[in-house]
Amino acid sequence: MNSKLLLIGQLATILLVLGLLRSVYSGLFQAFRRLHLPAEQRRQLSRSILTALAFWLAILALLAAQGYFYGEGEAQGRTALAFALPLSLIVLLLFSRFFTLILKALPERWLIMLQGFRIVQEGILWMGFVGGFVPVQMTFEWLNYDLMVGFTALMAGIAFFGPRRYRRPEAILWNTFGLISMANLVFISLASLPGPLYVFATRPDSGFLTLAPFIWLPGFTFPLAVALHLFSLKQLIQSRRNFADDLLQRWRKRQKK
Question: Do residues 121 and 254 touch, judged by C-beta distance below 8 A?
Fold first, then answer.
């Protein structure tokens, strides 16, 4: 194992997470402003959400430092739990009325272009492979093609949404592909850990994910990628409903005339 690349990977992961926290804070703050919430309420809500995220990250790091996630025979289940807990919250948010209002205020382009962080994430994984602590199947050298989602996200946000264009079918298709790609990465990550579903018995395994700060990948960046796709899809579906309702209202007005 290359200790220098390990240190660089750790620092890059920390910087990635900090950058994402900043982006989430800015995006939510702008959404609250579009909802015409009072300035003080905007700050309080944004800070509360940021504090909750920081608390979750701190818990993950503390448990990882104590070796909790790489317990004997428990690595797969406990790492999966780190991913499943935020995922369950994401699903609940999809059915929240207040969060639906927030989604309407968030720019559709922002939800897609933020997925560009997956370029950095894939760079960290590839660096880890070169450094000898990430298994090859978790990189674009073999089974992980999530880098394509990161690169296309930067272009898709511009191509799908603009002043004179709104390409809903293409955006839905892109989000669906991104979800499949992330599901593939999550599966590979868990299946490369010792446990009942130890499909990829390679050396090294994906045990680095159970260490701090790499635990933030399955515990934060992976769920965030899923969340951005699901939230974008809900935006697109809701927009389609609004468009259909608008057409129906216009048709009724014409019938009355």
Answer: no
Q: What is the C-alpha separation between 149 and 116, in angstroms, rounded?
A: 8
Who contacts 22 (Cβ-Cβ below 8 Å, separation ≥6)?
none
CB 24 within 8 A of CB 50: yes
CA-wise closest residue to 31 among 124, 101, 116, 134: 101
Local structure of 207: helix, strand or coil: helix
Phi, psi of 197 (to 5 degrees): -110, 45
Instruction: Give the integer Cα–Cα distance in Å for 176 and 182.
Output: 10
Q: Which two tokens stand for residue 8?
A: 């660089």
Report CA 24 to chain centroid distance, whole Å. Answer: 11
89-93: long-range contacts, CB 8 A cutoff, minimum separation 24: 90/223, 90/226, 90/227, 90/230, 91/230, 93/227, 93/231
- Model pLDDT for residues 156-193, shown as the tens digit of each residue: 888 888 767 778 889 999 999 999 999 999 999 999 99
Cis preceding linkage at 135, omega within 30: no
pLDDT of 244 above 90: no
How many other C-beta atoms lie within 10 A of the C-beta of residue 9?
24
Record the pTM: 0.90
d(C-alpha 125, C-alpha 16), whole Å: 13
